[in-house]
């Protein structure tokens, strides 16, 4: 399973659920007393669950560094998603966010979630193949689409799982109750924060793309194609910085997430 840094999780989850929590309504959060957030990371979703649930919310993750941060907001326990350190029926709701997309067998995780839940299991999974980007830099949208296709082609797990998580629920023996879509939008505009400036610098140096080089080359992209992409990527990054200096750079990214809820039979 891929590992994620605190910075990555902050960048990709910042502001999620701040605009609306309507897609979480099928979880019936106000009626649950014991909730487990599996693969909680830094606790971004855990905090939302704790704000909505009258009972206790516990975060669980295999990364102790991320758990230390999550533990500032909710009780946490170290554990593997496929071997949760809890007896059967410990919780009445088990939730994960952007976890199944990183697992080779999502149904195995859902089956383990169902073991420790007496009622509901829910998964909030993105469709990373349907990300939409709108940028004031003309080349950014097409280059990001090209890089995304190469990355998706090279990665071993289904990071475009999205609404197809329903199949994992059914395979694990749960009855799917509902799937709702939530579009998470991330916007960069003046005044630019430190995170936005860091992202721009990583584009201009090609550092961000370099992180994914190995994965991209696992697919159909070859070294020559990657080098061409990286050259154009760095040029695009310099255009981003130039627009930032003129305070004219604007970028919006929309990532569709799908909230699937199933009942333990």
UniProtKB/TrEMBL annotation:
Residues 36-116 form the Methyltransferase type domain. It comes from the Archaea. It comes from Natronococcus pandeyae. Keywords: Methyltransferase, Transferase. PANTHER family: 2-METHOXY-6-POLYPRENYL-1,4-BENZOQUINOL METHYLASE, MITOCHONDRIAL, METHYLTRANSFERASE. InterPro entries: Methyltransf_11 (IPR013216), SAM-dependent_MTases_sf (IPR029063). GO terms for molecular function: S-adenosylmethionine-dependent methyltransferase activity. Pfam families: Methyltransf_11 (PF08241). One of its GO terms (biological process) is methylation. This is SAM-dependent methyltransferase.
